[in-house]
Design goal:
The chain is mainly alpha-helical. It has one domain. It contains 10 helices and 9 strands. The strands form 4 sheets. The protein has a 3-stranded antiparallel sheet. The chain has a two-stranded antiparallel ribbon with strand order 4-5. It has a two-stranded antiparallel sheet with strand order 6-7. β2 and β3 form a beta hairpin. The protein is globular, with a radius of gyration of 24 Å.
Length: 289
């Protein structure tokens, strides 16, 4: 075979391989993006645990506030009071729709409000809601105590969150939660087949923690600050281990949590959009190096 023909054939083969690899990469990227989108929708549209309170309770929660705030809220419209409540508890609207629903809760058609993962991992960056950002304004303890006070006035039964708060502190400051202990408390009530086993709760050392940003998840080899948990979709299921969810729940939704894992893995830090002082940045670069 002549050298010229040989190199021509090699070039054609290389083009074919590149095209096939490119299509494969495009297909993989498209599939990953679709899985990530499904994961986000799954978290924001499905109530995976019983609701914490309902719409009428939230609409009246301002009546449980300190007197100065109650007086201020009393003169406002319902929409303005809702905005004030969102600000008080660290809630935000969803950046991807105009429903007015909070990113941090699934609001069902019958008015139930059920916490989702964005309660801790749906904060703001320079005032803009960003899914995956740590919610450093989330006031879980205050929200639970103040909605429970409304339920007592309304004659409604306490939720699992109300009862749980009597045994385990939910958080001692805005932006932090006792989430690690929540998971430990839920898991200890299960056997190896995830059947619910009723037993006296153990004593845990409570420790509030900041929620980590999800946009670093993709490059970490394991989960959590100490790296003790294997990275995978099953570790994301721990906060659904309430008595109402039996082993069949986890078989039914396992693929959905694979999508949730894809969603979290897809996140990247938001781009900084503000002005940069180049001289100051250069000084900082010298110090950093």
């Amino acid at each position: 075979m002549r050298p010229r023909c040989f190199f021509l054939i090699l070039s054609i083969v290389a083009m074919l391989v590149t095209t096939q690899d490119g299509r494969s990469a495009d297909h993989t990227d498209t599939a990953a993006a679709a899985a990530a989108e499904r994961g986000y929708r799954f978290l924001t549209q499905n109530a995976l645990i019983p609701p914490d309170f309902n719409q009428t309770t939230f609409e009246e929660v301002w009546q449980s506030w300190p007197e100065s705030l109650r007086l201020q809220a009393a003169s406002l419209s319902p929409a303005e009071r809702r905005k004030m409540a969102f600000e008080r508890y660290g809630l935000t609207i969803r950046a991807d729709d105009n429903s007015g629903k909070p990113l941090q809760y699934v609001v069902s058609p019958d008015g139930g409000w059920t916490m989702n993962c964005f309660a801790c991992h749906g904060g703001t960056v320079y005032g803009t809601p960003v899914a995956g950002a740590p919610n450093n304004r989330f006031a879980l303890q205050s929200l639970t105590e103040e909605t429970f006070a409304v339920k007592l006035r309304q004659g409604k039964p306490p939720s699992r969150m109300d009862l749980g708060a009597m045994a385990i502190p939910l958080g001692t400051s805005n932006g932090t939660t006792n989430a690690v202990v929540f998971g430990m408390g839920l898991m200890e009530q299960r056997d190896e087949q995830l059947n619910w086993v009723l037993m006296l709760p153990k004593s845990f050392t409570d420790h509030d923690m900041d929620a980590p940003p999800w946009w670093y998840f993709y490059k970490r080899p394991s989960m959590y600050i100490d790296g003790f948990a294997e990275k995978g979709h099953r570790g994301l299921m721990q906060f659904t281990l309430v008595p109402e969810n039996g082993p069949e729940f986890y078989r039914r939704y396992e693929e959905n949590f694979r999508d949730v894992l894809s969603y979290i893995t897809s996140l990247r830090p938001p781009k900084y959009s503000g002005a940069i002082d180049q001289a100051l940045a250069e000084n900082g670069r010298q110090l950093f190096m």
